[in-house]
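Pipeline run #58 for the internal structure catalog. This entry was flagged by the ingest filter as a single-chain record with no existing model, so it goes straight to prediction. Upstream metadata was stripped on purpose; only the residue string is passed forward. Reviewer on rotation: M.T. Logging verbosity set to normal.
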Amino acid sequence: MGRGGVGGRLKPPDAATGDRPAVAAFPWDDALRFGFGVLKLGAERFWALTPRELAAAFSAFEPKLGGFAPTPGDLDALMRRFPDQF
């Protein structure tokens, strides 16, 4: 897979500052957990997947309305930001 951006291209620099936008690191822990834990793949089969194949497998498990369920940390942050009002 290429570096950053879509299709292996780097994102263009900001017109005003010349800075390139930050690119999030690949979520290896999630990919490994999904491949080994959910798909039950062996190491050889997992590492033989292309990025497109792995993305397609992820999308098969994604809820129809989009996105994955929030993590416990996400829920904690939301509860702190929007506390119940009694």
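catalog note: The chain is about 45% helix and 0% strand.
catalog note: The CA atoms of residues 29 and 35 lie 10 Å apart.
status: ready for reviewer M.T.
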